[in-house]
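User: I'm preparing a small set of examples for a lab meeting where we compare how different chains pack in three dimensions. I only have the primary sequence for this one, and I'd like the structure in token form so I can line it up with the others. Please keep the answer compact; I'll paste it straight into my notes.
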Amino acid sequence: MGYRITPSCIAPTRISTVDRNNITVIILAANIGYGMKSYGPKTLLNINDKETLLEHQINLIKTVFPQADIILVVGFLADRIIRKCPPGVRIIENQLYEQTNEVTQIRLALNATLTDCVLIIKDDIIFNAETLKEISKDKSCIIYDTHGQIDEDNIGVIVVDHYATNFAFGMPAKWCHIAYLISKELKIVRSLCNNKDHHKLYFFEILKMMLDRVDKIRAVEPMNMEIIKIDNSRDLEKLKI
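Assistant: Understood. Below is the structure token output for the 241-residue chain.
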């Protein structure tokens, strides 16, 4: 079938609520990341003497969203990640990770979600709790940076009056690879990800398509946010948390 779900991913009921405590957090960790391939999965990088990048992300998520349902999508060297994954996390394996992209990861995870509010995060970003604390329970949003914490070669975002209107390279404001989706935006993203023609797309490309239908999405740059994206071995030098 191309994917594997751990037994704990099967649940009998769906929570129909936008209560901030009833949130699903999806961590995308299936793709290889060719700039770091020799280091193995980015999510297992040791970022300090105590924890891996994955442990750091999950601990912070649980701090901000104590009751979050966390789904980790794995692919490249999945068994290594599964062995190191902290308890209380549901795991979905995309066995076709070499032929697909982020959208397939999102589709698999969304099909297993039990809530109507979803936070999607890349596995290669390191952030502090303040990065997530300004997410509002009743409005979809993306997190962005204008202070040079996300490198200039990353995906940019056009922000007008606190709303993102487009994603494009070369913009001074950078998307932090974090999106919170509810209501109409979540339904649109779910539909777009279920389109078989989109399985090789990146998440930002799906968000661009979503903006064709909703025009804009709230953009949040949290105060006191600290964030790093690990794209290559040079970025490892930034890991001083």
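A couple of notes for your slides: DSSP finds six helices and twelve strands in the chain. The chain has one domain: 13-238.

User: Perfect, thanks.
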